[in-house]
Amino acid sequence: xxxxxxTTWALIAGVHGQEHNVRYARVADGGNDPDIVKLERxxxxxxxxxxxxxxxxxxxxxxxxxxxxAPALHLHLYxxxxxxxxxxxxxxxxxxxxxxxxxxxxxx
Length: 108
Known about the structure:
It is built from no helices and six strands. The protein is mostly beta strands and 108 residues long.
């Protein structure tokens, strides 16, 4: 999944297996286009049973379950349901394009 925020608090807690999270910091670039977001890697953590990671509304992160690994189960808790977050942002890392409400469809 590409870097994204949630515009609300989020907590990911490990239950079984591994989920790798990479946190990104937004880089101030002096630009005026709100639909362009520059990010730089700002830490990472693998979530397993017994640990968790938290995010604030404007934090960007990616998640990945290691390929070929054991099945994974993690609790993703949010301050609001994903359907009620129209201003969330997903960043295209190549173009830096990040239009508001640009959440990948889970139904595709």
